[in-house]
Amino acid sequence: MRFVYLDNNATTPLHEDVIASMNEALALYGNASSMHAFGRDAAFKIEEARSAVADVIGAPSGSIVFTSGASEANNTVFNIFRERIDLGSKRNRIITTEIEHPSIIETVAYLRGRGYRIDLCPVDNTGRVRLDVLERLLAEDVALVSVMFGNNEIGTIQPIKEIVEMAHKVGAYVHSDATQAIGKIEVSMKELGLDYLSLSAHKFYGPKGVGALAVAKDAPFTPYIHGGHQESGRRAGTYNTVAIIGMGVAAGIAKRDRKDEEQRLWKMREMLRKGIIERIPNVVINGNQEHCLPGTLDVSFPHAEGESILLYLDLEGIQVSTGSACASGSLEPSYVLLSSGVDIELAHGSIRFSFGRYNTEDDVAYVLEKLPPIIKRLREMSAL
Amino acid sequence: MSNFMAQWVYSPAVKDHFMNPRNTWDEKENFVPDGVGDVGSLACGDQMRVMIQVENDRIKAIRWLTYGCASAIASTSMLSEMAIGLTLEDAYHLSPEMITEALGGLPEHKFHCSVLGDKGLRAAIDDYLEKNGLPNPYRHSVAKIVCECHNITDVQIENLVKTKQATTLEELQEITKYGSTCGKCKADIAGLFDELKHIYNV
Q1: Overall pTM > 0.90
Q2: Nearest by CB: A383 against B44, B48, B109
Q3: Cβ B73–A384 below 8 Å, yes or no?
Q4: Is 0.95 exceeded by the ipTM?
Q5: What order do you get walking across the sheet with A284-286 strand by strand?
Q6: DSSP A15
Q7: DSSP 3-state helix, strand, coil percentages of chain B (rounded to 5)?
């Protein structure tokens, strides 16, 4: 059976060079915090990885704090400001957006439940942050502005540079969850003036369970996990040597191939978008078609329900994801789509195709062959 | 391939009915229904229409349409097979539990999707009886007491939701006084209320 994996925004396979580096690293058992030769060997490799990860986001090595992934990195950032507020800082308000990853949305809900003041800036109907609203929300009492780089569901890329300028004007720090952007579009902390940036290795052909938080030199920091003095006292826990080494290799590849990948992913995405519009009547393309992650295509098929589309595609070996409630375990469809002005029925009938480095134009042709009859069949069966 | 199928979230029967749904409505057939039931709500992602033909007090034929997920499609398909040949009374008493059992079970969060089919069938039977000016002895026969202290049945709550007399839990509480004595039914009734609001698109 032919498999076409188009769920690269959920996770990516390991690059073969990453596998090779991790296989080799399995034998490197020394604790990187130990002073002896075995420890130093591991520490050397970890520092190599640190500089590769720093390079891919245009940040100095010293800014990188290794974490268990982007969720921990995001939680760490919010915890830094929670503590500052607890200690009586006059800057006691946080601004983020309605379409952040759950690791931020749920952190916001948790903190709000405990009385913290957090504003969610709305987005326009393409998923871009409403800068006019952000302007009104910003004031001298804002401690942190957190806006994701590119959205995991609809792919919309945010105007980070403008947001940083606006936030810095009132003295607020800025964090961006760049998990979906690494290896796909240019990300430079230095150029953008970002104070914090989160990333996760498994979104760019690295291993799961490892990520990083980059912290600019003058930005405040408080450890989220207390214990040993790993990561210069910024994150306790014995180094996950194998995963960190794998992430370093993945970061090197992401930087090396980024430009070519950006073009290749966009080409396949556009082939699929145009092909769907040509072959299937009445479809709606979600998100922003100008500011979009190159490999992400989110489409709504009115009168066809997303989970059914997903499972019929699965039977043909095509793996995608959906914003439908049926797939989420709740009765609510994707909040990202609803916040971006997508009609509730269209959200239930949405499918996300996300391309990666192992996809080819043949994959697009295969999807364009299998998808139209599935939509036709479901529409014939629909009670709408 | 077997490994691939084993990773599926649903049972073989669900897959079979999802891939080959039975008794779906087809424009070319010119199916003339004696009763039609529409249930569901787009907001929750499923909408269903059940059409029946009745002969000698029995379901002679059934057709359906659904906008919904794999469990909604499979459970309606299974229901349609189970209902054919049944007396109206037996058909009226087909329950979601009977359908899910015939399907070999559904994941817990998917049980909701199987509730629509039997409601749709009941609505179609109600419609048939009403159109033909026949008495409807079944409507209250499936009642189950949900609040023991105040002797409140699910049918009572269903009617209050259906007729929009209770559009919020507070209104329902005011009308029925449910849960105001021992209170142990509160969570169940809140769940039932949400389910019914969904089914009747309130």
Answers
A1: no
A2: B48
A3: no
A4: no
A5: A284-286, A296-300, A350-354, A321-322
A6: P
A7: 50, 15, 35
